[in-house]
Amino acid sequence: RHDGFAEISLLKIFNRWGQLVFETNDIEMTWDGTFRGESLNPGVYVYYLEGVCLNEEIYMKTGNVTIIK
Predict the structure, then answer these.
(1) Is 15 in contact with 40 (CB distance < 8 Å)?
(2) Which pTM value belongs to this model?
(3) Cα–Cα dist 58/21, whole Å
(4) Which long-range contacts (CB under 8 A, 24 or more apart) does 55-63 make?
(5) Is the CB of residue 23 less than 8 Å from the CB of residue 45?
(6) 45: which residues sit within 8 A by CB, 6+ positions away?
(7) Which of 20, 27, 55, 69 shows a CA-CA span of 20 to 30 A to 38?
């Protein structure tokens, strides 16, 4: 989801070993929990996000997302 964002400059998602499993700068592209066409195992994945808000402020955030099956 991208409510409040004018653009996504960079979104990267990493597994627990630091391997990049997803990357985009397209605000319409979403991650479906896969890597190279295969579903990823349940676990915690780290993200790094850079974007521009609708009020033109630069936004940077890191956090995690958990895959549960």
Answers:
(1) yes
(2) 0.86
(3) 24
(4) 56/6, 59/5
(5) no
(6) 13, 14, 15, 16, 21, 64, 65, 66, 67
(7) 27
Order of strands across the sheet that contains 5-14:
20-24, 5-14, 43-53, 58-67
Query: Given 3-state DSSP classes, what are the helix, strand and coil percentages for the chain, each rounded to the nearest 5?
Result: 0, 60, 40
* Average pLDDT of every residue of the chain: 92
Q: What are phi and psi of 60, to 5 degrees?
A: -130, 135
For the segment 29-56, what is each residue's pLDDT rounded down to a tens digit?
A: 999 999 999 999 999 999 999 999 888 8
CA 13 to chain centre: 5
Residues 6+ apart with CB under 8 A from 26: 8
